[in-house]
Amino acid sequence: METDYDVVIIGGGVCGCSVVFELSRRGYRCLLLEKNDTIVAEASAGNSGMLHTGFDALEKSIELDCIRRCQSKIFELTEKLGVPVRKIGATMVAWNEQQLARFPDIVSKCSAAGFDDVRQLSVSQLQQREPYLSNKGLGALWIPSEAVTDPWLLPVLLAHDARKKGAQIITKARVESCQWNGSVWEILSTHGGYRAKCVVNCAGLYGDIIDRLAGKSQFSIRPRKGQYTIYSQSARPLINSSIVPVPTSIGKGVIVFKSVYDNVVVGPTAENVDSRQRATIDGDICRRLHSVARDTVPLLNKHNVVGHYTGVRPATQFKDYIINADHERNWITVGGIRSTGLSACLGISEIVRELVETRIGLEPSRGACLTVSTPSVTFTKYGSAFIDGQEYCVKHPLTFVGKTNSFSKM
Ligand SMILES: Cc1cc2nc3c(=O)[nH]c(=O)nc-3n(C[C@H](O)[C@H](O)[C@H](O)COP(=O)(O)OP(=O)(O)OC[C@H]3O[C@@H](n4cnc5c(N)ncnc54)[C@H](O)[C@@H]3O)c2cc1C
C-alpha cells in the first residue's frame, strides 16, 4: 500500500522537534502534527531553559542515558544553528548540616555517571565566587558543565532544519484517531488524514491519551506545575552561576538563575495539579518565590519583578522517561518527559532513531543529509521571530522577555 510518510510525529514540543530533526536528516519522510497554532507552546514553553548535566537523575535511567548522549553533541549543534548558550555552571548550596552531609554522595554519583568535574567548595571559595549570596551557606558543590540556553529557539530551529530537509510541519492539526490496518497507520487529525509506516507519540501532557488512541495504556499523566518570578536584567551582576538547592526526591527545587538573556529568574516550584492546561499564577507562590529570592540573594529585593510565568511538567506515576517501540505495529512512545527534556532532547531523538532502524526495521526513503546550515534569525519587538523569512510566534516567556524587554504583549 502507498503511504504518504515514513514517520508521523505527534506533538511539536522539544521532543517532537528533536525527533523530526533527527529522522529527517537521516532521510526519513516525516510529518509533524501539532494541535496548537504554533509549535513549542506547552511544557516546552514553560521551563527554565537550563541544559542540565543530570546531577540528580536516577542512576542507570533512560533519562540519564539521554542527557549524557545529548551533552556529547548539543554544544556543537547549538553553535552551528546559532542558538545562544552560556556555560555559567551551577553552585549547589548547602544551607544546613544535613544538606552538607549529602555532598560526598552527590559527588560520587556524578562521577559514576561520568561527570568528573564536580567539586566541593569551602565557605570562603563560595563567597569569592558568589559575593552577593546570603552568608548563611555552609558550603557548596561547583557543577561547571551546567548551562543555559534559549529554550524556545533551540527546538524551533531543530524543526526548522527538518523543514529545510523536506519534513512537513502542520499546526492546528489535533490528532483524533490512529488506526493500524496491518501495515500502515491511518491518522485522522483536525487538519486532515495521513498515512504513515510508523508513528512516534511525542504528545507531552497528552501522551497517555495519544497512546490510548493506539490501544496502549502504559502510563497516565500526572501534571505537575512549576511557577517562576522573573527579575529585570538590572539584577544580573548579583549572581555568576545558577544557584541550586540540594535536590530532594521530589525534584531539583527552586533555583535562582540567569536566563541566557540575563534576566534573573527564581523557580520553578513543583505542585501536582489536575489540569493539563497552562496553569495560572498563584499569589501565595509568588510570595514564596520572593522570599526564596530574598533569602538566597538579599539584594534581589531592590530589583524590579518584570513578570511571572508557569509551566506544566508531563509527569507520570514513574520517575523515569518512557521510550519504547511496539515493533508489531510500528508505534513508538516518547512519554513522561517530565523534567530535563530540553537537556536530553538529542539523546531522546537518537534513541528514537535507533528504535526506528532496529526495532521497527524501517529504511529511510531518501538519502541522508547530515549537514546543518546556520539559519538567519531576526526577532521582532512584537514577540515573533523570522527564521529564513518564515514567521514563528515566540511562546516561551524567557525568550519573549529577553528579546522584547517587555512582558505585557505576551
Ligand atoms: C516548570 C518546568 C521547568 C523545567 N525546566 C527544565 C530545564 O531547565 N531544563 C530541561 O531540560 N527541562 C526542563 N523541563 C522539562 C522540559 O520542559 C520537558 O521535559 C519538555 O518540555 C517535554 O517536552 P515534550 O515535547 O514531551 O512535551 P510538550 O512540550 O508539551 O510538547 C507536546 C506537544 O504535543 C502536542 N499535542 C498533544 N496532543 C496532541 C494531539 N492530539 N495532536 C497533535 N498535537 C498534540 C501539544 O500541543 C504539545 O505541543 C521543565 C519543565 C517544566 C514544566
What's a quick, concise take on this entry?
With 410 residues, the protein is α+β, with helices and mostly antiparallel strands. The chain has helices at residues 14-25, 62-71, 74-81, 97-101, 103-112, 123-129, 153-164, 207-213, 283-296, 345-360, 397-404, and strands spanning 5-10, 30-33, 50-51, 85-86, 90-94, 119-121, 139-143, 147-149, 168-170, 175-180, 185-189, 192-201, 224-231, 242-245, 255-258, 264-267, 271-272, 305-313, 322-326, 331-335, 377-379, 384-387, 390-393. It has two domains: 5-49 and 151-221 and 317-388, FAD/NAD(P)-binding domain; 90-144 and 228-313, D-Amino Acid Oxidase, Chain A, domain 2.
The molecules bound to the chains, other than polymers, are: flavin-adenine dinucleotide
Q: Termini, distance in Å? A: 46 Å
Number of domains: 2
What's the total number of strands?
Answer: 23
- CATH homologous superfamily annotation of the largest domain: FAD/NAD(P)-binding domain
Within the CATH hierarchy, at the fold level, what is the topology of the largest domain?
A: FAD/NAD(P)-binding domain
Strand content: 25-35%
Radius of gyration: 21 Å
Question: What report would you give on this structure?
Answer:
By secondary structure, the protein is α+β, with helices and mostly antiparallel strands. Helix content is 27%, strand content 26%. The protein contains eleven helices and 23 strands. Strands 1, 2, 9, 10, 11, 12, 19 and 20 form an eight-stranded mixed sheet that branches. Strands 13, 15, 16, 17 and 18 form a five-stranded antiparallel sheet that branches. It starts with a strand and ends in a 6-residue tail after the last helix. The mean pLDDT is 95.
